[in-house]
Design brief:
Among the domains are: about 140 residues, Bira Bifunctional Protein, Domain 2 (BirA Bifunctional Protein, domain 2, 2-Layer Sandwich); about 80 residues, no CATH class. The longest helix is centred in the N-terminal third of the chain and has 17 residues. It is built from 15 helices and twelve strands. The two termini are about 15 Å apart. The strands form two sheets. It has a nine-stranded mixed sheet, sandwiched between helices. One of its GO terms (molecular function) is glycosyltransferase activity.
């Protein structure tokens, strides 16, 4: 493990490089208010956050990342356009993998600019890639927005679409819902027995926990409505499965996804954004013909990403987490902007992992 002084020195160098490009350095408190922020993080981070209680300030948590507090700061006080950089510790529990650090340094670069989102995506990716040059890393990219658009446009009941949208970041649960909503998987026996009751109120259902009779009745009514909804068509299912299986270099991925759009036309605007991003990356000198694109990439990371996502990996060290990650989070600015919003994208690097790879020759 690199010495802390070396990690901090590399972090300062990286942040200094971003400052030289015009990014404004920012600091955020290590202790963050937990009540608002925990709802914005994905299930993975919520389960790994260090949360404590303060008699005056309520629930607080050690900063699990910088993006959310930086968005809060920008939406409250920032001017447009804006570019920010930062460096500091983040904290995450690692019960499932005790060999991983639960405290480490992140260096980040964030862009808030509505002028040309594709160019901003390319800017962030290219700068992160340049900072990592020489380490021999594999870059992976994706676009959560394509799958979000596919689900939003499905011909199915709104509650079903809402459930699928909620579980996009939990692939196994998402697949199980698709199987049930398409009629491929049978209704669970307990649910089938409940739905077979003659009255929707089901007065003989035992009261368990804090749910009252009205809540139980409402839940049963919702289950009945779901059971009566027509299944997702086999055509839509086949197109979704093809979409989720796409793993090609960027231009070939776009070509395959254009074919999928014949059956899922709702993804066409997202594909237009992908095409503009490919062009912008090429203009930045990125070898898009050799850049991997995975339609399912990013589905187990931060739930606030809603467009372009990327990561850099050391294939010679599969034991290491990503050396850098990033993505677009337009919806997050809307959630924190009290009605205002601005396209935003950013990325973070791990200077400790960069030094470890350099010490071992990649």
């Amino acid at each position: 493990m690199p010495a802390r002084a070396d990690i901090l020195a590399r972090a300062a160098d990286l942040r200094g490089g971003f400052e030289a490009l015009g990014a404004q350095p920012v600091e955020t408190p290590v202790l963050q208010p937990a009540d608002t922020l925990l709802d914005l993080y994905g299930e993975d981070i919520r389960g790994r956050a260090y949360v404590t209680s303060d008699a005056l300030r309520g629930e607080q948590m050690l900063r699990p990342d910088f993006t959310v507090p930086v968005v809060q700061m920008h939406m409250a006080h920032g001017a447009e356009p804006a570019r920010y950089t930062y460096a500091g510790e983040v904290f995450r529990r690692q019960e499932q993998d005790p060999d991983r650090a639960n405290e480490y340094v992140q260096v980040g670069y964030e862009v808030f600019d509505r002028t040309d989102p594709a160019a901003a995506d390319a800017e962030v990716f290219a700068l992160i890639a340049d900072a990592l040059s020489g380490l021999g890393l594999r870059a992976a990219t994706g676009d959560i927005g394509i799958l979000l658009a596919a689900v939003q446009g499905l011909q199915t009941a709104e509650p079903r679409k809402a459930a699928l949208m909620r579980h996009i970041w939990r692939p196994r649960r998402f697949r199980a819902l698709l199987e049930r909503y398409s009629g491929r998987a049978p209704v669970p026996p307990a649910r089938a027995a409940l739905l077979a009751r003659e009255t929707p109120e089901a007065p003989d259902v035992p009261q368990i926990g804090k749910r009252g009779a009205d809540e139980v009745a409402a839940r049963i009514a919702a289950l009945r409505a779901d059971a009566a909804a027509p299944p997702i068509s086999e055509g839509d299912m086949a197109a979704l499965e093809t979409l989720l299986s796409v793993r090609e270099t960027m231009p070939f991925a776009l070509e395959r996804l254009r074919d999928v759009a014949v059956d899922l036309p709702q993804i066409t605007p997202a594909l237009d954004r992908l095409e503009a991003r490919i062009e912008a990356l090429g203009e930045r000198g990125v070898d898009v013909d050799g850049l991997d694109f995975e339609a399912s990439y990013g589905r187990t990371s931060m739930e606030y990403y809603d467009g372009f996502v990327f990561g850099f990996y050391a294939e010679s060290r599969p034991d290491l987490p990503p050396i850098a990650t990033g993505g677009r989070y337009d919806a997050l600015t809307r959630q924190l902007g009290a009605g205002a919003e601005i396209p935003a994208v950013g990325g973070v690097l791990r200077p400790d992992l960069m030094l470890e790879l350099e010490a071992r020759g990649g």
